[in-house]
Design goal:
globular, two-stranded antiparallel sheet, five-stranded parallel sheet, alpha/beta, 12% strand, 34% helix
């Protein structure tokens, strides 16, 4: 979906926007941001991070990583290629680490079938591969928040976030708590100057592992995804 596909806002209607890179089967905080936002921007134009979560995630506290073509560096994730056969490799890791999980029989086999059936049109780029996997989990969790891909951003840093929220008509930006590390001493100011409210995520993380751990261990995965700190709303 593009910004043009979003329905127009009614007068006074808020639109909370979440933004995140298309990481590999990311942890619960990613899905919290998606679930509670009105629009979720998938930041496919970000730069590839060799040691980031775009290509790897922990499952049972051990890394699971995509195999990439070559040794990409200082390029957008839209230019990074994943080696063919990623579906089978990922299924092998999930099966090996979760075959004795509480909900393996009811959810694990279905998850493997969905991963194995994932198809990417054209080049197997890192953003498209991860987007296909995000689509699988989004459906399993029942999240219906629209996913939007915007045009390549013009600005950088906080100005980039303000720009992206504006492109989809957002009135609020939902930031992970890690955003405080790079937003400066008055993080709300640049958003307020653009008429945007800065909202901090209050997600209560139970595990830093992949969402796969939540799907296969929790009786109610969405209750884990939507968990909030008790001392906050």
């Amino acid at each position: 979906m593009t910004p043009a596909d979003l329905p127009p806002l009614a007068p006074g209607q808020p639109r909370l926007v979440g933004i995140h890179q298309p990481d590999l089967l990311p942890y619960s905080g990613f899905w919290f941001k998606m679930a509670v936002s009105d629009v979720f921007i998938v930041a496919v134009h970000d730069q590839f991070q060799k040691h980031g979560y775009q290509r790897r995630v922990t499952m049972r506290e051990r890394w699971c990583s995509h195999e990439l073509v070559g040794k990409p560096a200082l390029v957008p994730i839209t230019s990074v290629l994943v080696r063919e056969g990623w579906q089978g490799r990922l299924c092998d890791v999930v099966r090996g680490r979760y075959a004795v999980a509480r909900h393996w029989r009811t959810r694990g086999v279905d998850l493997l079938e969905r991963i194995a059936a994932c198809q990417v049109d054209g080049a197997q780029t890192l953003d498209q591969v991860n987007l296909a996997l995000i689509g699988v989990v989004r459906e399993l969790l029942g999240i219906t928040t629209p996913l939007v891909v915007t045009a390549p951003p013009v600005h950088a840093g906080v100005a980039r976030l303000v720009e992206q929220v504006g492109l989809v008509g957002g009135t609020g930006y939902l930031s992970g708590t890690g955003g405080a590390a790079y937003m400066g001493s008055d993080p709300a100011a640049p958003f307020a100057a653009a008429g945007i409210e800065l909202v901090w995520s209050d997600h209560r993380m139970s595990t830093g592992d992949s969402i796969v751990s939540v799907l296969l261990d929790a009786d109610d995965p969405m209750s884990v995804v939507l968990a909030r700190h008790q001392n906050e709303r």
